[in-house]
Amino acid sequence: MRLLLSLLFVSALPAAVVSGPDGMPVGWTTWSARAETAPKCFVDPLQYRTRPASLAISGVSNPAEHGGWHRVVNDVVPGKWYRFTAYYRTEGVAYESLQVLARVDWNNAAMKRVGRPDYVYKTTREGEWTRITADAPAPEKAASATLQLYLSNAPQGTVWWDDISFEPVEAPAPRPVTIATVNLRPMGTKSAAVSVQKFIETIEKTVPAKTDVILLPEGITVIGTGKQYVDVSETIPGPTTKSLGEVAKRRNTYIVAGIYEREGAVVYNTAVLIDRAGNVAGRYRKVYLPGAEVEGGLTPGNDYPVFKTDFGTVGMMICYDVFYTDPARALATRGAEIILMPIWGGNETLGAARAIENSLFLITSGYDYPSQVMDPDGVVVAAAPKDGTSAVVTVDLNKSYTNPNLGDMRGRRAKELRVDVAMPLPAR
After folding, report:
1. Using alpha carbons only, how large is the chain's radius of gyration in Å?
2. Which of 106, 220, 222, 404 is exposed most, by the fewest CB atoms within 10 A?
3. What is the pTM of this model?
């Protein structure tokens, strides 16, 4: 049964809200860890989204403030999936993604916690209100769920919650995607076109049909040529994207590869995304350039775009980006489920860290770095250790990767990440 706010409040205040003898809404309780950190929780009949009255929380000028509303929903079925949805609006809240919090805390028949709380983190702005939602399975032995609506450490802030629902939904169907990553190091080609052709030949020999995305390494137009970056730079679209586009269209696959892009006087180290029709669907210009690339005349990029494909949302990084936390973090924040990373060489431990800390798949194709597929737990699920080979694997983008002690870290990370704390410049 779908529990709407009007039902949760049980009846009475204009169309939606009824107060008990203590003035609090029937069915809801308030919570804080300590009395001295308790916010002010009240029913506000003047602020609402669709029906008069909402659940309000005020920080009451207390920097230690943390807490809010609780509602227990019974008859939860272990293994069944549920969707928690709520709308909120705020005033005086500086950092909503951290300070405005909704969770589902699961209980057994004795009202003891089972599993870990699930964070409600997917947001959509709808006028003055923000819709948040999350789907999660009830853990083993769950008998009820505590819906939690909080305001945290927002002394001058107020949040209003409205149109709250908690309903059973179908479990997400598997979302398989077949990924191939190529291990090839052309030598003595003396030509960008010849090096690119070597990669195309390897695709044809080693990558099976019905592959969804194929990853090639960084700088496929310079490797083996003996030329400089600027010598092999080209426009996008250009000859390399045309050649890769023909392969993508013929094989009905996406292809990602690293090339050197010229735009006027500027030359970028760029990863291109070619779609199944053979068109350029996106590009990423490498943000972090090592000294040798700067000395070689390259210019850094300044954005971390993500791209919607027919199998999921992807982002791209290139080589030296793996040494820094912010590229992968930005892509995950923007919704990337897979990072495709052409790479020359780098630190494998940091590669694993990027997958684990952002709970996503990291696909690499390199020369002095493994060509492999890594899952959100940092486990290599496929690798191509020999030159001239490919690693191919099918992964499920809807598979849940849950830490037994911390729960769903993708959801937690979205709500707990402290990007509001400024990063200082290095000390002089």
Report:
1. 26
2. 404
3. 0.90
Q: How far is CA 428 from CA 324, 414, 423, 424, 425, in A?
A: 20, 33, 15, 11, 9
Cα 212 to Cα 275: distance, rounded to the nearest angstrom: 10
- Element at 107 (helix H, strand E): strand 100-107
- CA–CA gap between residue 247 and residue 260 (Å, rounded): 19
Q: What is the pLDDT of residues 4-22, one digit of tens each?
A: 443 343 322 233 445 555 5
In 3D space, the residue among 140, 7, 157, 12 whose CA is nearest the CA of residue 78 turns out to be 140
pLDDT tens for residues 155-204? 999 999 999 999 999 999 999 999 999 999 999 999 999 999 999 999 99
Is residue 254 within 8 Å of residue 275, measured between CB atoms? yes
Q: In the structure encoding, which two tokens stand for residue 203, read together?
A: 């695709």
The helix/strand/coil state of 60 is coil
pLDDT tens-digit series, residues 284-296: 999 999 999 999 9
SS3 141: coil
- CATH superfamily ID and name for 176-404: Carbon-nitrogen hydrolase (3.60.110.10)
CATH 2.60.120.260 is held by the domain 5-169: yes
